[in-house]
Amino acid sequence: MHQMHMDKATFLDWAGAREEHCELVGGRVVMMIRPLIGHARITRNVLLALDRRLDRVRFEALSDVGTDTGPETIRAPDVVVVPLGTESSSRTAPSPVVIVEVLSDSTTTIDLGDKVAEYLRLPSLLAYLVVAQDEPKAWLHVRGQDGQWPGPQVIKGLDASVAIGPLGLDLPMTDIFAGVHGEEGPSRPDGG
C-alpha cells in the first residue's frame, strides 16, 4: 500500500472528510484497523466511568478526538479528558489532562511504547492509561507532584480500581470491563 505523506494541517482537513480512523505519525498517514466489539465496549465503559466521576465544572471526557503530539504527529486516542470550554471547532485536543488507549493486537507495541514517550511529553497531561482488551489489566502513568513520570502502575483484576490522584478519580475495573468478558454492566447512578 502506498504511504501518504502530509503536514498536520493537510492531514486534519483530509482526515476530517473520511470515515476511516487514521493517525499522522512522523508525517506519514497510518490507517487504523476498526476495533473489535470488546475494544468498543471498553472504550465506551471508560468514557462513561470518567463522565460520571469527573468534575463537570472543569473537565469533560471525549472520544474520537485527535491529539497533537509532535511536529509531524497527530494521534487518535480512544478517550481524552480535556478542560471544559475547549473550542468546539478544534480538530485536536489542545490540552488533554488524561489520555486513554485500549490495546488491540495491532497497537500493543505502539500504545505501550512510542505513544508513552509522545504523550508523557505533553505539558498538560496528568495521566496516561492503557487498558488491555483480553484481560482485566491496565497500565497507569501518573505525573508526580514534582512533574516527573515514575514508571507505570500495573493494575490487575476485577476487584482493583484505577486511581487517578491528580483528578481525584477512582475507576473500578468492574466498570471498565463491564460486558466484555461476561461481567455485568457498569453501575449507574440511578441504581439501574
Keywords:
alpha+beta; globular; 192 residues; two-stranded antiparallel sheet; 21% helix; 12 strands; 5 helices
What does this structure look like?
It holds the Pfam family Uma2. This is Putative restriction endonuclease domain-containing protein. InterPro entries: Nuclease_put_TT1808, Restrct_endonuc-II-like, Uma2. It comes from Rhodoplanes roseus. The chain has 192 residues and is an alpha+beta fold. The chain has helices at 8-16, 37-53, 108-111, 114-120, 173-176, and strands at 22-25, 28-31, 59-62, 67-70, 73-75, 79-83, 98-102, 127-131, 137-142, 153-156, 161-164, 169-172. The chain has one domain (35-68, 75-176): tt1808, chain A (Alpha-Beta Complex). It has 5 helices and 12 strands. It has a 6-stranded mixed beta sheet with strand order 3-6-7-8-9-10, sandwiched between helices. Residues 188-192 have low confidence and may be disordered.
